[in-house]
Amino acid sequence: MLHGISSSAGVVTSAAVIMVAVFSIFGSLSMQDLKQFGLGLAVAVLLDATLVRAVLLPSVMALLGERNWYLPRTLSWLPRISHGTTGAGTDGTGATSGMGGTVTPVGVGGSPRRGVMTRGI
């Protein structure tokens, strides 16, 4: 559950450091609006990278458990992707995602809807 958070922590922290540095430079400009804009964004990114991602996100994920991955009924039109399987799709169409998983085509009468990729890349 927390593997995704821990594996992306370095990238997120590096991006946050760069963004805080760039937004802090706005504080040295002569226009008052840009100073406020830069300071506000720098503080917001710093709080997001430290408090939200380091404290709030892991604790909420631990409290919610499997409910983190609940898909609301209104989003049931999205294709269902299952990772870790190989070969033809489990729905009998042979549709694969190109990443080792299967994609169940969505649409009326079993035909894929326009704009939904159902074949491998």
Main sheet attributes: strand count, strand direction, barrel closure: 2 strands, antiparallel
Q: Structural class, judged by helices and strands?
A: mainly alpha
- The string of secondary-structure elements, in order, is HHEE
Q: Mean pLDDT, as a whole number? A: 75
Low-confidence stretches: 94-98, 107-121
Q: Please give the alpha-carbon distance between the first and last residues.
A: 28 Å
* Helix amount: 40-55%
Strand content: under 5%
- The strand order across the widest sheet is 1-2
Number of helices: 2
Tell me the radius of gyration: 21 Å
What's the β-strand tally? 2
C-alpha geometry: elongated
Short description:
The protein is built from two helices and two strands.
Descriptive notes:
- This protein is mainly α.
- The chain has 2 helices and 2 strands.
- The chain has a two-stranded antiparallel sheet with strand order 1-2.
- Helix 1 (3-25) packs antiparallel against helix 2 (32-64).
- The two termini are 28 Å apart.
Question: Helices and strands in order, then pairings?
Answer:
Elements: H1 3-25, H2 32-64, E1 80-82, E2 102-104
Please supply descriptive tags for the structure shown above.
mainly alpha, two-stranded antiparallel sheet, 5% strand, single chain, disordered C terminus, 121 residues
